[in-house]
Amino acid sequence: MSGIVWALAGAALAVILSGCGSAYGVGKAGQAAAGVVTEDPGKFAKVLVLQLLPGTQGIYGLLVAFITLSRVGLLGGSAADLSMETGLLIFAACLPIAVVGLVSAMHQGRTSVASIGIIAKKPEQFGKAMLFPAMVETYAILALLVSILAVTNIQI
Fold first, then answer.
1. pLDDT mean for each 10 residues of the chain (156 residues)
2. Contacts of 125 (CB under 8 A, 6+ apart)
């Protein structure tokens, strides 16, 4: 396999894994949110915010993929001739957001479900309820930063 194939595989994994995690997390939180809204439609806005939080990892994976595709020239119309070593480096640079995005989005979805439970019983505690899933987000942001810094600093 050539270097460009490895680079594209890294970009694809960043999107696929973080996207799968986000779909799972948003889905789980959406199920809980729907139950709350069934009982009290006035809580829609608060539970919607909590449901959307696990979706950010998918956006982070997409961002890393766009940066990667841009760096290797595919968004400009012609792919760079990458060595195997460079392609593997780019692949490895995409792994942090791919793996952490998958895992953190799934856990953030579960944490959002618990926070939606808080809103169901005590809607005035929305600020506190937001903190729990936001803490999980921290690790996705760290992985995003590592992937962006790594991808943008590989010599092509």
1. 93 98 98 96 96 97 97 88 96 98 98 98 96 96 98 95
2. 118, 119
Angstrom distance (rounded) from CA 87 to CA 6: 5
Residue 113 makes CB contacts below 8 A (sequence gap 6+) with: 28, 29, 31, 32
> What distances in angstroms separate CA 13 from CA 21, 58, 77, 141, one per listed residue?
12, 11, 22, 17
Cα(94)–Cα(17) distance, integer angstroms? 11
Contact partners, residue 70, CB within 8 Å, separation at least 6: 76
The CA distance from 78 to 33, in Å, is 45
Residue that has been written with the tokens 């001739």 in this structure: 81
What is the C-alpha separation between 45 and 54, in angstroms, rounded?
16
Cα-to-chain-centroid distance, residue 80? 27
For the question of whether the overall pTM of this predicted structure is more than 0.90, the answer is: yes
C-alpha pair distances (Å), 61 with each of 12, 83, 150, 151 = 9, 24, 14, 12
How many of the other CB atoms lie within 10 Å of CB of 42?
9
